[in-house]
Design brief:
It contains twelve helices and four strands. The chain is mainly α. It has a four-stranded antiparallel sheet. Strand 2 and strand 3 form a beta hairpin. The longest helix is centred in the middle third of the chain and has 38 residues. The radius of gyration is 26 Å and the shape is elongated. The termini are far apart.
Length: about 350
């Protein structure tokens, strides 16, 4: 039998057994740490330095599942399809992420569940942000397009594009970091994730700035508000929804700042291995973001005006004709005349 001492505490006995830090580890387990147990592998093989709380993560899992059911109910009832799509995507990923953490409680060595948790909880808020971005344009329609700095469609299209770009970076970085065992490649993936999260932070800050700018415009031009929606604007539900939307954005912003700081230190950093800070600044922030958007669901808050407050990306032909932007073509045949 040939014994090879590779240093760093690794000794290969040549008989299918590797001794590492006093543990005799088979080749199969050495190649696949998912097979590790506390009796066969050292704690340095754990995916994170702590054992995820079963009670805490199961609670988040249950709460996000209940909120998802409520969002589906309200979304179908009030036909808020775009808002529903973003919320379902985000909440489903939150559920998958906390399910993975529950599984990590039972097997902290599992790289599979670690990867699912990492990617799921990292990109989930991007979907939730998309739903929030859809609301601002409709709020602008309710208060009055004329007092807005930009057309309602500009806000939605701009921030949704920002969100997609951020999501692509986070997903790509997460996939690279989670699929590689090479330190350099993992770090590259982490850096891409950080770039995506940082871009999300900037986007959210810019969005909150635009919200504050519009709120200031509303306060200065009360005489120019849309009269058709005056009754809706005066209701407690609608006012509370506007406040809740800004609060939800702020909670996601705080969470994203935390994740940038966490990933900047790397998977072995202090923040990445502190359970309390994760449960508060990740889980609690997202929970506080989605609860108001469920209790004060836009379908409820807009009281039947959600679809009326929609915007058109392109002006209709009739409006263009009315404004003289399109020259009306005179029909030349009877068949042509019937088309107008």
């Amino acid at each position: 039998m040939t014994v090879n001492d590779y240093g760093n505490g690794i000794i290969d006995y040549g008989n299918g057994i590797i001794n590492y830090k006093g543990f005799n580890i088979t080749y199969a387990v050495w190649e696949n740490p998912d097979l590790c147990t506390f009796s066969t592998c050292p704690r340095s093989f754990q995916q994170i330095d702590y054992i995820p709380s079963l009670a805490g993560n199961a609670l988040y899992l249950a709460l996000f599942a209940l909120i998802l059911v409520a969002q589906i109910f309200f979304g179908i009832r009030y036909r808020t399809w775009g808002f529903l799509g973003g919320m379902v995507g985000g909440l489903a990923l939150e559920i998958l992420g906390y399910l993975s953490r529950v599984e990590l409680h039972d097997n902290i060595f599992s790289s599979t569940w670690f990867k699912v948790y990492l990617v799921g909880l990292t990109i989930a808020p991007a979907f939730l942000s998309a739903s929030i971005y859809l609301c601002l344009s409709r709020i602008i329609v309710i208060y009055g397009r004329t007092i807005s700095r930009f057309r309602p469609a500009v806000y939605t299209i701009t921030f949704i594009c920002f969100d997609i770009f951020s999501l692509v970076l986070q997903a790509a970085g997460g996939a690279i970091a989670a699929s590689s065992d090479e330190d350099d490649t993992q770090q590259t993936g982490v850096n891409i994730m950080i770039a995506g999260l940082a871009f999300q932070v900037v986007s959210l800050f810019l969005f909150m700035t635009m919200c504050a700018d519009f709120a200031f415009a509303v306060s200065r031009h009360k005489s120019g508000l849309e009269p058709a929606h005056a009754a809706l604007r005066s209701t407690t539900k609608f006012k509370a929804f506007v406040v809740a939307l800004f609060a939800s954005t702020l909670f996601i912003f705080i969470r994203s700042c935390y994740r940038v700081a966490e990933l900047k230190e790397g998977f072995n950093g202090k923040l990445a291995n502190q359970q309390v800070s994760f449960m508060i600044l990740e889980g609690m922030m997202i929970l506080l973001a989605v609860i108001p958007l469920t209790i004060l669901h836009p379908g409820v808050a807009f009281q039947g005006s959600w679809r009326q407050a929609n915007f058109k990306i392109r002006a209709s032909r009739d409006k263009l004709l009315a404004n003289g932007a399109v020259e009306k073509q005179e029909p030349t045949t009877a068949g042509d005349s019937e088309r107008y």
